[in-house]
Design brief:
single chain; mainly beta; 59% strand; four-stranded antiparallel sheet
Length: 111
Amino acid sequence: NHNQKYIIPTQGAGNLYIFDYGSPQLCGTAGCLYSVYNSEGKTLLEFIANRNLPEGAKLVEVSKTVNQAFPCLTITQNTNTDGLLSQTEFCYQKGKYIRLNQDFVSGGKYE
């Protein structure tokens, strides 16, 4: 069982819980299913991600940007271009996380 749970504190809105199911049934060529819940158990975001990243790269990072007490989340993934990573920012709006923007960074900065 590869189930992992990450807890992210919010600013006064309880905790966020990120579930990494790590189950072969919930994984495909693009990666595995991850879910972000709030303290009440409401799903705020679901995303497919591949956890195989370059050394030092973090799959989910908590941004310094906070919206309605919830921090924005940056999800890092490999791209089809060698050495290039995508970083997608999701921020809390109207009861759930929505995708705001995507940047591309060189994976070399982690070496």
